[in-house]
Write a structure and sequence with these properties.
mainly beta, Beta-galactosidase, Chain A, domain 5, 9-stranded antiparallel beta sheet, 7-stranded antiparallel beta sheet, disordered N terminus
Length: about 350
């Protein structure tokens, strides 16, 4: 046996032993982290979803009450999306402008319970807390993660118990899809979820370093009035970061509450669906959404509609819709003659 052959065998045995060690310790799931989907957990912090050995998404679930700063950073769980190289997120985390915006996240600014209204969007004296994992599964074709989450008011009173499930698949019309299904159960009495499209619902927020002049949205119809329209089946967004252009299609399942409004016009890219609902005592609300993640430009209208049909369970193919592409709203330039606001002017509007 040559020295080279002996060395190769040692490397193979060492790599195999490392994989088996990680599997035994619960750090990785799936037979081989370099093929298909795998999960890698840092207990109490985050769970990475790997696709072909690279991070595709990261579920941030840490909750740390050791300081005001740490509370602000961890008061709700969210799902980061990573670039194709798996080196950094293309979605926003804590801090910066609108620090409550977190990648893929869910919340309402007006949650009514026992005649009082609580803010579970800006997280004013409230928290959405990951409690435990129910399921962690991954194989060559998909990954599935299910978490039990509490929506908490008054420091420790959980008024909603959520079962949040993420399911990941490869996508023929993009890089991958992620479905989020949230079952919200009112455990302490009736809860009403409300707000407005800017401060409530299911949302996607690109990274803070977005090039705001290049953000655009695509709608599956010719006449678009985002403020008045209801129940879009899907809306697409393309945005730019320093590493290139990224696209996402936000899909709304037909079983979600009707009357859903969208926010899809901000140049910093936060967009999503805003449903309202009343959850009776011990009753549940089921919300189902899909995000199609693509590198570069959006897929064709035909590809998106086909993907939505599959998501919605439509058996007869839907006609390919006409599209409207709208550039994101940009702030109006300040007039040279504008006078500075005097001291004591009204307080600014709440942050989106």
């Amino acid at each position: 046996m040559t020295a080279a052959t002996n060395c190769a065998q040692i490397i193979f045995v060492t790599r195999t032993a490392l994989i088996l060690y990680c599997l035994a310790g619960g750090l990785l799931t799936a037979a081989d982290s370099e093929t298909g989907f795998a999960l890698q957990d840092v207990p109490g912090k985050q769970l990475d979803v790997l696709l072909d050995g690279k991070i595709a998404a990261r579920y941030q679930y840490e909750y740390d009450t050791s300081s005001k700063e740490r509370i602000s950073d961890t008061y709700k769980p969210y799902l980061h999306i990573f670039n194709r190289a798996g080196t950094e997120p293309i979605t926003k985390g804590p801090g910066g402008d609108f620090p409550h915006h977190r990648a893929i996240f869910l919340g309402w600014c007006k949650v009514s319970f026992e005649s009082k209204v609580y803010d579970l969007w800006h997280m004013k004296g409230t928290a959405i807390i990951h409690r435990r994992f129910i399921t962690q599964e991954a194989n060559a074709d998909q990954a599935r993660v299910v978490a039990q989450i509490d929506w908490v008011i008054n420091q420790d009173q959980a008024i909603i118990s959520e079962e949040r499930a993420f399911t990941f698949h490869r996508s023929p019309s993009g890089r991958f899809t992620v479905d989020q299904t949230s079952r919200l159960t009112a455990t302490k009495g009736e809860v009403h979820l409300d707000g407005d499209p800017e401060h409530a619902g299911m949302q996607y927020r690109p990274a803070a370093a977005i090039l705001t002049a290049e953000t655009s949205y695509v709608f599956p119809r010719t006449s678009v009035d985002v403020g008045k329209d209801r129940d879009y089946p899907w809306v697409g967004e393309t945005y730019a970061l320093a590493d290139g252009r990224h696209s996402v299609v936000f899909m709304n399942h037909p079983t979600n509450p009707t009357g859903t409004r969208y926010s899809a016009y901000r140049n910093y890219g936060r967009f999503g669906a805003f449903p309202t609902a009343t959850i009776p005592a011990n009753g549940s609300l089921l919300l189902t959404y899909r995000f199609l993640i693509a590198d570069g430009e959006l897929p064709t209208a035909a590809a998106i509609q086909q993907a939505w049909d599959a998501f919605a369970g439509v058996t007869t193919p839907s006609p390919v819709p006409p599209l409207t592409v709208k550039a994101a709203d940009q702030p109006k330039p300040k007039s040279k003659d504008a006078k500075p606001a005097p001291a004591g002017d009204p307080k600014p509007a709440p942050a989106p």
